[in-house]
């Protein structure tokens, strides 16, 4: 069974790097083999999405159901695709306020030898270069040439906490929170 493990250091805070990796909607912008993405569901704890792969005319897809533990872990689990097994993780650790250590680990096996002969070289190239593409994107974000993906899901509790931090409290004016308006 092929196993890919990579570890790099990037000049991007861990929270930003987590958003970059979890922001699957932006993958077609910087992964040259990514022909499209479909997000089936997303919460703070899980992202369920499909990535369409097109590498020199050879097409396939992989769908994963990722368990998220922001901002440090994204656990990858196969939902659909030409694999008998696919599992792995991204681990992102802060290295001070402006950097992070990024570890990618993936194990996979195709459903058949025929599928491995056809798709093995393509998928092998994709996973072997994946971390490098994310490093390039992180550098572009840091330089201002690219932006982080928009966060499509922010829990209401986080919105309340953000609003509450901006409310002045004085003896003359007791704290009252303005209504929370969904994004």
Structural features, described:
The protein has helices spanning 14-22, 27-30, 113-143, 156-165, and strands spanning 3-10, 34-42, 46-55, 58-69, 73-80, 83-94, 100-110. The chain is α+β, with helices and mostly antiparallel strands and 183 residues long. It folds into 2 domains: 3-152, START domain (Alpha-D-Glucose-1,6-Bisphosphate, Chain A, domain 4, 2-Layer Sandwich); 156-183, no CATH class. The chain has a 7-stranded antiparallel sheet with strand order 1-7-6-5-4-3-2. The radius of gyration is 19 Å and the shape is globular.
Give me some keywords for this one:
7 strands; 7-stranded antiparallel β-sheet; about 180 residues; alpha+beta; single chain; 4 helices
**Contiguous helical run count:** 4
Q: Looking at the chains present, what oligomeric state does this protein adopt?
A: single chain
Kindly estimate the percentage of residues that lie in beta strands according to DSSP: 35-45%
Major sheet attributes? 7 strands, antiparallel
Strands, count: 7
CA-atom Rg in angstroms: 19 Å
Kindly identify the CATH topology of the largest domain: Alpha-D-Glucose-1,6-Bisphosphate, Chain A, domain 4
